[in-house]
Design a protein that fits this description.
The chain contains twelve helices and seven strands. The chain has 329 residues and is α+β, with helices and mostly antiparallel strands. The strands form two sheets. The protein has a five-stranded antiparallel β-sheet with strand order 1-2-3-5-4. Strands 6-7 form a two-stranded antiparallel ribbon. The longest helix has 20 residues. The structure holds ligand FS9.
Length: 329
């Protein structure tokens, strides 16, 4: 079992177990586990909504390399507190499962909001990019490489500010040994050095930032193809094409972020995020105000009430919310 240090995560020292929460909705489901919207039933935070991530130890242990990711998610979130990174409130386990109680983010995925808006104007893309840069900067300062920056991992809080979520485990257990499936889920945002297993440093996150910004400003990531194999080939060939409406500053920034050779990529150097923050594209950004969430988001998620899950995929929210008793102890 994974040793859990209760002190930093569960400050009141309250004895926590699954029965402290009522399960309201399913937010996501995959090979390793599920994510529920839950409400706390007792303690000082009674009636507070949380996201409860339930991981099945059996499936994780079976994929040995993933146990490391699982430990890291809990350990990272325990020590990292930042306005643009999801916070971990409790962590506990039963014989068969690991439970992470995370702050609930009602705004859903940034990109489901983008789907409604289509392409973002540069000013809006700049807003989200600046908040993501501050989150990545914080992780890098703590020696953490996010590695997994992609649309579904960028959520919105109730006011429309971003939060990075889903550290560690990919959502699907990787069963087939087809090499292109060695990478979990979406690969369109992955840096070339990850795909070619060259080992990777923090510069992989700046590549992914480039692909995310390209997507926000054009409606699709820079390298897409009809299948994973072709997509990987495109990422490695990386011939960048920009729509005519791009300003020169935007073309220059994205070209420097999407450098295939990582040691020529913007952000690779010891100054990390500073190299990017001082680029002309961000010349009007007030970074102190951004960190304090004093900059108005481009749009505010429209929510009827606090349990409104309209921003989440009905494929999941329609499911009956039950933490199946693999092992009720
Ligand atoms: O479905 C998800 N993840 C997922 C899906 C399938 C399997 C697994 C795993 F196996 F890891 F358990 C995880 C998303 C996680 C982030 N989500 C959050 N939504 C709202 N508040 C949140 N606070 C923190 N995260 C969120 C939306 C759902």
């Amino acid at each position: 079992s994974i040793p859990i240090n209760e002190l930093t995560v569960n400050p009141t020292g309250e004895k926590i177990n699954p029965k402290c929460f009522s399960i309201l909705k399913v937010l996501g489901k995959g090979g390793y586990g599920k994510v529920f919207m839950v409400r706390k039933l007792q303690g000082e935070d009674t009636s507070t909504l949380y996201a409860m991530k339930v991981l099945k130890k059996a499936t994780i242990v079976r994929n040995t390399k993933d146990t490391q990711h699982t430990k890291s998610e809990r350990n990272i979130l325990e020590f990292i507190a930042h306005p643009f990174i999801v916070s971990l409130h409790y962590a506990f386990q039963s014989n068969a499962k690991l439970y992470l109680i995370l702050e609930y983010l009602p705004g859903g995925e940034l990109f489901s909001q983008l789907d409604k808006e289509g392409i973002l104007v540069e000013k809006s893309a700049c807003f989200y990019a600046s908040e993501i840069i501050l989150a990545l900067e914080h992780l890098h300062k703590h020696g953490v490489i996010y590695r997994d920056l992609k649309p579904e991992n960028v959520l919105l809080d109730s006011r429309g500010h971003i939060k990075l979520t889903d550290f560690g485990l990919c959502k699907e257990a990787i069963l087939d040994n087809n090499r292109t499936h060695t990478f979990c889920g979406t690969i369109e945002y992955m840096a070339p050095e990850i795909l070619t297993r060259k080992g990777h440093g923090k510069a992989v996150d700046w590549w992914s930032l480039g692909t995310l910004m390209y997507d926000m400003m054009t409606g699709a990531p820079p390298f897409v193809a009809e299948n994973r194999k072709r997509t990987i080939e495109k990422i490695l060939k990386s011939k960048l094409i920009f729509p005519r409406y791009f300003r020169p500053e935007a073309i220059d920034l994205l070209t420097r972020l999407l450098k295939r050779k990582e040691d020529t990529r913007l952000g690779y150097g010891p100054d990390d995020s500073e190299e990017i923050k001082r680029h002309k594209f961000f010349e009007h950004v007030n970074w102190e105000a951004t960190l304090k969430k004093a900059v108005k988001p481009p749009f505010e998620p429209t929510l009827r009430d606090e349990t409104d899950v309209s921003q989440f995929d009905t494929k999941f929210t329609g499911m009956t919310p039950v933490d199946s008793p693999v092992d009720s102890s």
